[in-house]
Structures
1.
Amino acid sequence: MQMTMTCAEESRAAEETLAGTFKPADTFFLIESSLSEYGGWGGETVKTAATSGNFAPYLRHLQSAPRAKVLFIRRPQSQEKSFYIAVTNQASPRIYHAALSDYDELLQLDISSLAADRRPRINGREMTEVDELYTVCTNGRHDPCCAAYGTPVYHELAAQTGQERVWQTTHIGGHRMAATMIAFPQGIVYGHVDPQDVEAIVTNQRAGFMLTHKYRGRGAYAGHQLDEAAHKAACAAEAVIRERIGAYRIDDLRLDTVEQNSDDIWRVRFIDADGGAHTAEVKTQMSSPRQTSCGDAPKPMPQHDVSLLAAT
């Protein structure tokens, strides 16, 4: 009998490159809700909630922010209405929290305050800044790999950081790279995470470092207005440059320029902490067909070939 691999098993067996696989976002909105009126966390949770039902006006308001990403969050036994905003597209990323009395308060959020780099206010009160937060996709009704790989990682994160610092979340994107998680406030996205990786991720995050071999991408680069293709190319280049020069501290590199030389070739330049420039050429090609989600027909996916060009 022929055995069929899950999408995550196939991705891991192929040793799929992770860097450059996350669709960028400037601002993340995390809303605690089981979405009982929608039948729980379904396969297209955010899309469904954005188009119908009581949550639709809330999500339309939040998604008016440029490049916003909305995630629903939950944890066992919690019956609260926690709300977080992570603003990642600035030199000093931050994440803020508020306990809502009612979801209608979301309509009172001043979206313009986020772009102005001011502490956001909701229903007249300032939100509280928190130092770190982790979210793990466990949305098994979207793809079974998210629950199978994500749930053990969630429990290990809770053990390592304390339950108040970690949440289960709806679809982050890229279930074949499960478990996939985000470390805030920078919005650093990791993939193919296993429970044994958690201690290293948390220890490095708290010390200001990142793990390049699990790195998929991050929230937008401060000061740059990049489209999705350019942003993914920058993330792919960043991982290779960091590994080549040993620059693992989050603040070791600053994105300088991203130039498109042709339809599928990008030149990406980073500046290190000493002012040295590091340039990479990123060629984006399509892979052989692979599962993007369990049960879906295989299809080619973008993959990045990165060459380091210069270091000055």
Note: The mean pLDDT is 90.
2.
Amino acid sequence: MGWLNLIDGILIILLVATICCAISLSRRLSSLRSDKKNLEKLIGEFHDISEKADKSLTGIRATAEEVSRELAEANAKSRSMRDELAFLVERADRLAEKIATNPNDLSVGKEAKGKPLENEPVDEAAGTASDIDFKDNEQSQVERELLSALRRVK
């Protein structure tokens, strides 16, 4: 009987160890189940956040395209204004050369005020913008603004 009691004792010890392992495993599985619920919640939140980010990116792309279009329009407008200003500068240079080469041949400016041009010195070959009266019906708005600004500078 001694051997049977010894075998029963070993079986009891092994059964107690198995029960302890089963309890530990049960606790771990319940922890995993609760973590699974938290993980599903986090996945749902991640999905919502990714949808919001996608909508935001769509809005950003639309805004970027709109800004790009507006910049292209502004660029085109500035180029046309640059070309017009270059034309005005070229025209002013030609007029300055004309004044520099023949200052007595002016039919506009001081002579129109009743003073002869021969008695007055020509400063820096062209005078000032307010001394010359531009009567050109084909002047653009930019030309008129430039002439107005030049007259105010004096």
Note: The longest helix spans residues 2-101.
3.
Amino acid sequence: MNRRTFLQTTAGVAASTVPHFAIGKPGKSANGKLNIAFIGSGGWIAQQPYNQGCSEENLVAFCDVDRDQCAENMKAWRTGQPFFEDFRVMLDKMHKEIDAVVISTPDHTHFAATQMAMERGIHVYTQKPLAHNIWQCRTLAASRERYKVITQMGNQGHADEGIRNSVEAVRAGVIGDVSQVFCRNSGPEMGGKHFGNPATMPTPATAVPEGLSWDLWLGPTAKREFYRDYLPQKWRAFYDFGSGMLGDWGCHTLDTPVWALDLDPPTVVECLHREKSLEGVIPSASHLRFHFPAKGARGPVKLDWFDGAQDWTKVGRIDAFGAEHAAHLGRACWMVGTKGLLGCGTHAGPPAILPEDVRKAWGASPPPKTIPRVQGGPFREWIRAIKGDGPEPGSNFSVSAKLTEIILLGVLAQRFHTRIEWDAKAGQSTNHPELNAFIKEPAREGWRFGETL
């Protein structure tokens, strides 16, 4: 059995949750370690996987379009491994030597790197949000089924104890029937570290920094001149590259209610308010409402998302069980039930339950732990699954593609300040057919993947 066939076999075993561990293939690494490559090797976003399990395996290749941005990490980590600027070249040349890849690029290149790796039988860990448009999400979910690789999206709170306690509490009826959810974030800080705030659009041209391969950074998006505030992190403010505050944080904060309430894509998403912004730039504040249909024994659910500064005397009112509004106790998410409330942090975290008598009853007799617990965090969860030593990761692409689709529908409604009626089966807006062009965005020649899936 060769290396690739073996890994595909163990991936299938892991997906069926049967523990199995063995590595045996031509050119295998010492002590059964995986050969892992990084696509996106600079800053804390690459330090996270390195420090949380990947450095315990064999790091066999690095890729980054910005040599200056990744210089510090490469000085500390690179001991002769090949370095690439173009992940397409790396995957073509080295795919037989790579078992798994961690993808930590800007949102607009997540899909190309992830899809190309999966087509070559390589297991993938892709940072959130999973993709930049809904067609990409659905294609990655289908690719997981087709190529039988182990997948994980980087909404790390999904692997924690806290979210499991919350999901089990909601499903056990601790707070009663839930029909309303509030989620929020006080950002974006426009012009701050993570979000650009240009004076004009299109943005003015500035000199490309030495060490940056600008055309490769653009990837599938249309060519344009470099603008200094795109990098290293402020691209999030531009819809062509990022998805704003909702895309940046929604995969964390919406994770608990989507999991606990088993929410499928909504039938309607409406943007009730957004601050004005330049075309193609995110607003400094917005208010969205998602309408989820009834499912099974659960009734319909409304989920409100707020970002930026809000007047909580007018919006996000809870006014029940001792809580006034969506920012009560500084929590980022509140699920409102008929018996009480359950609150979570930005990255899920441990639940806060109100009122006090419901919280005390839950603490004295918590529901059974029906969801398997994860040891060591999301990267080790992913690595164990690849080796066949654990079940499929919780945020695999069948789960995270649906979560990301929900979020990207909200991003689309926010971008155009409108109401979107969504036909999930067809993958189309029924009331704004002109927006369907954004469900599958065009990609430049050389950057088109998954078209025949």
Note: Confidence is low (pLDDT under 50) at residues 9-30.
